Every structure is written in structure tokens, then in C-alpha cells.
Protein: Alpha-galactosidase
Amino acid sequence: MGTAALSGLALALALALALPSAALENGLALTPPMGWLAWERFRCNVDCRADPRNCISETLFFEMADRLVEDGWRELGYEYINIDDCWSAKQRDAMGRLVPDPERFPSGIKALADYVHARGLKLGIYGDLGTLTCGGYPGTTLDHVKQDAQRFAEWGVDMLKLDGCYSSGEEQAEGYPEMARALNATGRPIVYSCSWPAYQGGLPPKVNYTILAEVCNLWRNYDDIQDSWDSVLSILDWFSANQDVLQPAAGPGHWNDPDMLIIGNFGLSYEQSRSQMALWTVMAAPLLMSTDLRTISPSAKEILQNRLMIQINQDPLGIQGRRIVKEKTHIEVFLRPLSQAASALVFFSRRTDMPFRYTTSLAKLHFPEDAVYEVQDVYSGKIISGLKTGDSFSVVINPSGVVMWYLYPMVLPAQPWHLVRQQGPSEGFHPVLL
Ligand code: GLA
Structure:
């Protein structure tokens, strides 16, 4: 190598070192994270005297970890057990460090991390970039970012949800990338979940999804989920209305997060529970359950443990699906392209009268001509063999329910079609062949 080339290299190296890197590049969350998160179901219940079984304490997390392992969740991929707000003491210690509440977490977070790691699980924790967390516990102001990242890493934490209460837009624009760098600098792989966009309205120009994908592994875009069907619908509506912006932002290592699964709680009927699972799966959403795994019903468990559903959610291509049809009859169709030329379709009914017979064809849903598919109903397991693109078919969809299909081609069309990754709304959204 000549001296000119060498000095060119040296210059490039010097530039690379001098430039602040905003990229997370931690190689984590290549598929949407799966696990359990305390917030929606257990909130900020800190009254362990009156309610020892349900308060935010180490016991709750030990018990949920046991359930994840013993009831088949871990084997299916539900590996994170995540603490949310209200875990810490109301004050930092004399050295300015975060400390867990001594009465509710007497063993400390490190012991909890050791416990879950010994069982093949991972531990998530919660912080807030601001003066206080949303629940009023000590926040991570800019001067504490490095210290807190270090502390989480020392404890053996595997995921951080960084909320954004009590901070300004400017502080967030500085602090969220700063935490990404601080986490990377610890050398410990820590999945980074940012609430940043949710505090900025979730849309451009205030939210830059290109930057976000370089900073965070997943991010909350919108309002908190509550234990009601109305809440699920409002989230779905917002994600669908803004899918042209949101859908291209997702991919391996960087995901939109429409918030927790509330299946198993009090607000959703059986049909609505199946709908949340199917819709979150086509949206390539993280599958973070917030429910009491000690008392969950067999039917809720069956929905959450559907193997084909999880396989679709975890598809390695990591392409988020889209709503492709919105009928006047209040039927909507969602499509998610999957690896190996497969796809998932969700037929969703917003009707409130009776089961609706919806007739369509794969041609109408923009599938390539001349292909023949094997179809598996994701919930019933029934198989339809030899469905041609031009064949008309009907599905019967219950009120506020779904029919979900997994399709893979038995015969490919003569002309391979091309990957369609990011399209304008007018061009439609097609299944892909890689
Ligand atoms: C915010 C977040 C929720 C939860 C609470 C905790 O509202 O969006 O997910 O973490 O704070 O106080």
C-alpha cells in the first residue's frame, strides 16, 4: 500500500472515530421481542401489605418467571420478563445510583437477573429519560444516562424500556441517542425500547424513523394500551391510518411497538383476543404479554401459544404487514409478506351483528396470477389445498373477530414477481417472492 493510500486510510479512520455514531448496531431483536411486561396488568400497585400477590415486588417477577418456564412459554419464544415503572426507591443512593425499593425488592435486581438467567430467560427493566418516571420515581436526567446504563449492565439486565415523561423534546433528542451509546459502551447486549416517538406524536416531521431505527430496537409510537377493546381498536386505527409512514420503518432489529398484549385480562372477548393476537402478528409487533400467567384461562393461553401464529410473528424477513382492503361492509384485510414466498392474511370484521360471509379471491388481494396455494387456517388448523389465484372463496368472520390464513405457493407463476418492500399507497402491497 502506498503512502497516499495509507494516509487516506488514516484520514478515514480518524474521521470515523471523530464522528459521533448514532447507530445502535447491537445485533439484537432481529425478530420482534417476545415475553412478559408488568405494566398493563399490574400497574403501579405498590401496596404489598394489602395486596402481596399483585404488587410490584420481586415475588411477582420470580413467580412470572416460573410460569414462563413451567407452562411452555419459554419454549415458544416468550423469553423476556420485564419490570416496568415503580420498581425503584423514591431516592437515588448517596452515590447517585438508582436503587430498587428495599422492601419490595429485598434481594436486589442482580439476584432477579441471576434467577431468570438460570432459567433461560432474560430480564428487562424500566427507566425514564426525565426528572421523574411517569409514576413519580427517580428519572434518568441527561447527567445520569451513563451511570444508569452502567448500573443496568452490572445487574445483568437484557432489555431497557426508556420512557419519556418529564422531559422536553430537546432533552429527548439528545438523551435517547445518548442512552443508545451508553448501553453499547457497557459491552452488554441490551435491547433498547424507546418511548421517544410516542412523546412526539409518532409522525414525521417531528419523528424521524430513519434515525429512530438507528438508535432503538423497538419504540412505542402511540398511546398506552388499556384493558378494553376500544383501546385495541384505537391503536389499530392509528397504526393503519399511518401505515405508509410506519410500515417501512420496521425490520430486523427495529420494530414499531403498538404496546402490550392484553389477552387473558378482563376487557376482551374471546373473538377480540384472537383479533389482537392476529393483528399484532401481522403488524410484526413485539409480543409482550401483560397478564397474570398464574391464573390465565386455557383459552387465552391457547391463543397466545399458537405455534403457527408465533412463527408468522417471528418471520425472519421481518416485513411489517399492512391493511390492504377496507370494505364498506366493515371487513378489513391485512397482508404480511413472509419468507419463502409465504404470506399471512387476516380477515377482520368490525361488524357488530352476526358472522359475516366475506367472498373474495387472491387475485382481488393482488396475489400474482397463475399461482396455486396451500392455505392453512391459523386458528382452526384446517388446510385448503390447491387454491388458485383466480378462485373465489368465502370466509365467515365473527363480529370483532378474525379469520387468519397462512399461505404458501404449491406452484409458482411462470414469471417470478419481485420483492415489493416499500410502496406508495396507490401501488398496493403485494406478496413477495425472494
Ligand atoms: C407510560 C408508558 C407506559 C408505562 C407507564 C408507567 O405511560 O407509556 O407503558 O410504562 O408510563 O408509569
